[in-house]
What we know:
By secondary structure, this protein is an alpha+beta fold.
Amino acid sequence: MARPIPEDLIDQIRTSVDIVDVIGQYVQLKKQGKNFFGLCPFHEERTASFSVSESKQIFHCFSCGRGGNVFKFLMELNHVEFPVAVRQMADFASIKIPDEYSESAQNANSQNSEQAQLISLYDQTAQLYTHVLLNTKMGQQALEYLHQRGLTDDIIEKFQLGFAPGEQLLKEFFDEKKVDYQVLRKSGLFIEDQQGQLRDRFRGRVMYAIKNPQGHVIAFSGRILNKADSQAKYINSPETKIFSKSNVLYNFDIARTAIRQEKRAILFEGFMDVIAAYQSGVTNGIASMGTSFTNEQIYLLQRTTTQLDICYDGDDPGQAAINRAIDAFSQNSQLKLSVIEIPEKLDPDEFVRQHGGKQFNEIVHSARLTPTAFKLDYLKRDFNLNNEADQLTYIERALKVIGQLGSSVEQDLYLNQLAQEFNVQVADLRQQLRQIRSQQSVDAHQQAKREPLVDKPQDFHRQKVKLDKVELAEQRLLNYLLYDHNVWLKLAGLPNFHFVHEEYQTIYMLATGYFENHNSYDSAAFMDFVHDTKLQNIIAELDLQDLDDANVDQSVSDYIDVITAQAPLSQQISEKTKSLNEAKKMGNTELQQKLAVELVELYRQRQGA
Length: 609
């Protein structure tokens, strides 16, 4: 039986990596002062409140309150146990975990986790389907189809393309492995009939593996190989515990590194477009599961890059999808957008096959339009511009598009283009634009009045509560004593001292145990010692506070006085207030008067203190 990973090996792994490098793979970080900031990966936000301290090797979100060291980050992000996060960081740091300990990381996330079981099922299924495609007679026709579309065997393996044969293969495969029926039933890999029998969901289809950001297969999209009238061209996995279509971007796990390096992502319409682009050397391509976008998908991109290029099909449906995508991203993100237009009304995959990867690469890096330029061109599809009435209507619509621009320089650019194209005066266009913008402002104001006032959900964000004097003193004193041994000794010499709030007292007691085996304080190491998620969050928040180093002795004395003098009064006031409320409920007027007098006296004493 495997033994737990020793503490010294855990310390070696943690200190061998830089938390900024690790988190930087998932969050776009910018240096501000001593720390790095980015958009929190654990909830949606528009202003960066997620902080990473390189010197202390910890992270903390000032909005949702999560915090910890590099292991805690991976545990929260990937929903894994501590030993699994340690193993992931060991791989990242190229540190070998001896065999006697290695199983502990695997067992921690195996049979006890339904989520882990489902991921294992999908990973095994992807391997099976790829094997069928590349190595069996059953997959020969599908392999020829993919070869005809220009894909090499290396690319097929890279993207884990596969083939689900018409036979009942997958159910028998897992029956041989004695996988639990209920797990198979919940996996989405099978369809259950009225008798409770399971049969393979995907049959006779080329399989595209859909992966999570960590590279694990979590779903499939299956394309029919031989089309029949009664069958859909594509079918997708249903939503499960590990797969939600609204959270996924195809190929994000592979493209993320290239997106960071090139500082932009390219959004394609289909899976084959992404794969063909990759084979052509364009490695920062992704696709959504359909052409509509969710806030989760937009936010995933926004955390990773500032620039998004949209490269959809050149035909009319593709252009309409680009127009919708621009609206979705413009309204809900801070991403800079551009549009890559594919000539000859082709889709990217077709263009690569007809003109080659080199020419496609040139288009991707040079043929970019601004969203406004695309929209002005797209508008022309609805008008006969040889007709004066249509010209006037088009100009009015075009001015509405230009009126949404925040930059006067951009407005001037497009107004001049419009004036030149239709041989009109720029001054007249500006006058009409002012009228349109004035009307847009009135419409927006009226719409705002009509919309009902609804409270925004606060699922992820903590309520910002102003700390009272006692708790503020507790936080700062705790921070001082962790980093300054003299403060620790001073507090240890006060036999009756204790923190008022249970969380701070618990951290103080745990720190006592920590310092028995450590000569100095290391917040990242202390978090591994603490284990408790709530306490780790508090420690991270404390660690990122700025303290006055010039007057430590005086500050510490003041904080101790506040805690020992005011805390008991605060506790009495709280208890007396509860008693007064109870007296009001019972209608006991005499008791209410007595308690009110006592409460006033307690407030007077606290004010004097």
